[in-house]
Design brief:
The chain is α/β, with parallel strands linked by helices and 572 residues long. The chain is built from 23 helices and 20 strands.
């Protein structure tokens, strides 16, 4: 008998005639490592909650270690054996201090004090958060909170752990560490790991990949088998690793190539001579426009007179030119979200000035409402800024407070919905009926509707499937061009930043570490690695090709440009 056995599972949410899961049958062996992929709304998170007994099947049956998930008498035992880590860590943290939060589950399971201490220490070490053991959970960044949520489940030492987009808010190093922890738990402790993810680099580390599409199992196989079907995955609103996409587009190469070194080996066989680029992928850079926003000697200190004092930003100075997209990257806890909260006056700096069109936004605090209509902020977790009865009313809230005419409000709502890919049907829904991805779209639309000249986006595409990310960024770029707006994009996705940004600001430990064009920043690979960051996979491929004397350029950041480079040599 399988460790997890799912037979003819169907699930409907209340008052819905649409099946979230439709007659699904799957099994997972003890000690297996599976990645589950699917577009937003495909049923991934619902399946995870059903396995853990958080939801009950509408039809069909699930057993975990022989326990029926619908049997209330065994739910306690089930949940001690099968742990789940949610996308939003705030839904999972229960204590005010980090080590107390991690200790919560072992305490409730009745372990001795010395055993609890050992489990807490081991779990914190696994997620690289030992130094934060005595910190307040409320003072942590989103990524740090996620690590603590993971540690809280690890401390239970369950037989199965389900990671539901658990790395979405982590920096590249953090994601690698968590994936390494997943593999270690799986290989060394025989823990069954199920990871739900939109990061293909995580999926290829699993032994098995299951693809859901509209509540049904579309594919089930090894990573190499699944990613051999590039076109079918795209039809399901998914993506593939950059090197897989490149070799697929070039044609004539083996299917399902997943890794950088493997792709380099295949290209080495095919390339007759060095790649000699005739053009550069570098964006045309004119002299920076006048600043839309300036930060002068800004510091932010949390808990000034407490034992938890932390300097989140340290005397930083930087300016953001009008009409450009500025990518803001940095390790978890580097100060990115703190910086975002300063830019429209949501938080006041401890020292220094924030200048909008040359004027200090705190010079006239009574006019802060006007500042916030000019500098829009989309939070890291969109559900925190949704509150109206319908999505349409939520989007209209800002324009109404700006005292605009009904006609103008209606226009702005429709335009914002268009930019963010929201349908008429979704506009009529309650925001709280939406999926996580739809909530993110609605939150962005609510800010865009005010037509701010500066738009600050904190992880705008986190939790969205690849198609959703394309739609959101397409709308944002259209908005930028139409209003000549300045976009500040906080992201942990190096591919997104490389594709859309004009300049990149790198924060490290609350300080400006690097600031320049995409080429200037990504050209300093060692510094990026030192800051806990990464390069796009396609860039790492060309760095490897250069080591093998097969190319002269490494400023390659997108699959499209890489394809043009190689086709020129192959004579395609």
């Amino acid at each position: 008998m399988s460790f997890i056995d799912i037979k003819n599972l169907s699930f409907f949410y209340d008052e819905s005639d649409l099946a979230v899961l439709d007659n699904v049958s799957l099994s997972f062996e003890q000690g297996s490592y599976t990645a589950i992929l699917g577009h937003n709304g495909s049923g991934k998170s619902t399946l995870a909650k059903l396995i853990c007994g958080i939801l009950q099947p509408t039809a069909g049956k699930i057993t975990v270690a022989g326990l029926d998930t619908a049997d209330e008498d065994t739910l306690w035992k089930l949940r001690s054996r099968c742990g789940m880590i949610f996308q939003n860590p705030d839904n999972q943290l229960v204590a005010g201090v980090v080590e107390e939060d991690v200790a919560f589950a072992p305490e409730n399971l009745g372990y001795r004090r010395d055993e609890i201490r050992r489990r807490v220490d081991e779990a914190l070490e696994t997620v690289s958060m030992t130094e934060y053991a005595s910190h307040a959970t409320s003072k942590l960044s989103g990524g740090q909170k996620q690590r603590i949520a993971i540690a809280g489940v690890l401390a239970m030492r369950p037989d199965c752990i389900i990671f539901d987009e658990a790395t979405a808010m982590l920096d590249p190093t953090g994601r690698r560490e968590i994936v390494a922890a997943m593999k270690k738990l799986n290989r060394e402790k025989n823990i069954t790991v199920i990871t739900i993810t939109h990061y293909m680099a995580e999926a290829i580390e699993a032994d098995r990949v299951v693809v859901l599409d509209h509540g049904k199992v579309l594919m089930d196989g090894t990573p190499r088998e699944i990613f051999s079907h590039v076109d079918a995955l795209k039809d399901a609103s998914l993506s593939v690793p950059q090197v897989t996409e490149l070799l697929h587009q070039l044609g004539g190469f083996p299917k399902g190539v997943l890794h950088t070194m493997e792709a380099a080996d295949e290209l080495q066989k095919a390339l007759p001579r060095a790649i000699l680029p005739k053009e550069s992928e570098q964006k045309v850079q004119s002299a920076p426009a006048e600043p839309a926003l300036e930060i002068k000697n800004v510091s932010v200190v949390y808990g000034e007179d407490t034992p938890f004092r932390k300097e989140a930003l340290k005397n930083i100075s930087v300016s953001f030119p009008k009409g450009e997209v500025i990518g803001i990257i940095g390790h978890t806890g580097s100060g990115k979200s703190t910086l975002a909260s300063l830019l429209n006056g949501l938080r006041a700096p401890t020292a220094g000035e924030i200048l909008l069109d040359g004027e200090n936004i705190w010079a006239k605090p009574k006019e802060m409402k006007q500042i916030r209509s000019r500098v829009g902020l989309v939070f890291q977790y969109p559900e925190y800024q949704l509150f109206e009865e319908t999505v349409q009313a939520d989007i209209a809230f800002g324009p109404k407070n700006m005292k605009l005419s009904e006609e103008e409000i209606s226009r702005r709502v429709q335009d914002a919905a268009h930019f963010c890919g929201l349908s008429v049907r979704e506009l009529r829904k309650s925001p709280f009926e939406l999926s996580g991805g739809q909530k993110r779209r609605a939150a962005i639309a609510g800010v865009v509707a005010m037509e701010p000249e500066v738009l600050v986006l904190d992880e705008p595409a986190a939790g969205l499937d690849p198609k959703g990310r394309e739609e959101i960024f397409g709308g944002l770029m259209e908005y930028k061009e139409r209003l000549h707006a300045t976009l500040l994009l906080i992201s942990h996705s190096m591919e997104e930043v490389a594709r859309y940004a004009d300049r990149i600001l790198v924060l490290k430990n609350g300080e400006v570490y690097l600031y320049g064009t995409v080429e200037e920043v990504f050209g300093q690979a060692e510094k990026l690695f030192d800051a806990g960051l990464d390069l796009p996979q396609i860039t790492k491929l060309f760095i490897e090709l250069k080591k093998r004397a097969l190319c002269t350029a490494t400023d390659v950041y997108t699959v499209g440009y890489a394809k043009k480079q190689i086709e020129r040599v192959l004579g395609c």
